[in-house]
Write a structure and sequence with these properties.
Elements (H helix, E strand, L loop, with lengths): L2 H14 L7 H7 L4 H12 L3 H19 L4 H7 L5 H12 L3 H5 L25 E6 L2 E11 L4 H16 L1 H8 L7 E8 L7 E9 L9 E5 L2 E9 L4 H14 L12 E5 L10 E8 L1
Antiparallel strand pairs: 1-6, 2-4, 2-5, 3-4, 3-7, 6-8, 7-8
Helix pairs in contact: 5-6
InterPro entries: AraC_E-bd, Cass2, Homeodomain-like_sf, HTH_AraC, MarA-like, PH_domain, Reg_factor_effector_dom_sf
Pfam family, one: HTH_18
Protein name: AraC family transcriptional regulator
Length: 287
């Protein structure tokens, strides 16, 4: 089963169990995928987390019931997963810009999020430049933080992590330490299996370094792998995001490779990442 087929099967499973207390781990298990790669693929293809999709769909259905039935608001709050009418009203207003009572009186337009259907273009109209290489294990040094993928924490917090690093000059320190074969500062995403539950990742901002780490920095060995390396041309963050989407929506579905499930890299050379001619890379270990 391809990644695209897996995502569509997962959406169908979500819709069938939309009013149940399902977890991302259960959804990923349904399509035989790891929580990390399932959440990552879903977010890349849909521009939202799984938790966001479930919340938006529930509130869409709740709005339809408010408009078309006489069910009490408190009953609908419980039905759609909210512990109190107040919590339901707050979430409802955030999505629809009106309260449940106003919606019932048909005051204002509602925001409807329909069931997703994944459609993929395999025409390859936009060429992708890539190469496949075999690389021995190497060491990275840097700092890391652990994020929960199940509630979308990773998508919210990782950009703030980079902002902090750029502001305090730590990225310059990493460029100075870069003496390995991969030239630049790395954003490294690794599944975390030590949390006692599924769905966590370690995100590193680091560099390829040979030798001991400086005080205060952590080290990690990236295993020997076969890598597909994609060129990314254009200013951040749009160029990087667009390339990730193209990889998952076009390249992976039309090739026999699949992600190996180990560390994935974004490589940023020591140049203006926001300039029109900026160059960077995405490294994905494959099998």
């Amino acid at each position: 089963m391809s990644w695209i087929e897996s995502i569509q099967k997962a959406i169908n499973f979500i819709e069938e169990h939309l009013l149940e207390n399902i977890t991302i781990a259960q959804i990923a298990q349904e399509v035989n995928a790891s929580v990390f790669h399932f959440q990552r693929t879903f977010t890349i293809l849909t521009d939202m987390s799984i938790a966001d999709y479930i919340r938006r769909r529930r509130l869409t259905l709740a709005a339809q019931e408010l408009m078309n039935t006489e069910h009490k608001i408190i009953d609908l709050a419980y039905k759609y997963g909210y512990e109190t009418p107040e919590a339901f009203t707050k979430a409802f207003r955030k999505q629809h810009y009106v309260t449940p009572r106003e919606a019932r009186k048909r005051q204002g337009a509602l925001q409807s999020y329909n069931r997703l259907i994944i459609q993929v273009s395999l025409k390859g109209a936009e060429p992708m430049k890539y190469k496949i290489v075999e690389k021995e294990k190497f060491q990275i040094v840097g700092i890391k933080r652990t994020y929960n993928c199940q509630d979308g924490e990773n998508t919210r917090e990782i950009p703030l992590f980079w902002q902090e690093v750029n502001q305090n000059g730590f990225d310059y320190q990493l460029f100075q330490l870069n003496n390995g074969n991969i030239h630049g500062v790395l954003g490294v995403c690794v599944p975390n299996t030590s949390q006692g539950q599924k769905g966590f990742i370690d995100y590193w901002i680091a560099t390829d370094h040979v030798g001991d780490a400086e005080e205060g920095l952590l080290t990690m060995e990236v295993p020997a792998s076969k890598w597909v390396i994609f060129e990314v041309h254009g200013p951040m963050p749009d160029a990087m995001q667009n390339t990730w989407k193209q990889i998952y929506s076009e390249w992976l579905p039309s090739n026999s490779y699949e992600p190996a499930g180990t560390a994935e890299l974004e490589v940023y050379p020591n140049e203006d990442a926001y300039g029109p001619d900026a160059y960077s890379e995405i490294w994905i270990p494959i099998k």
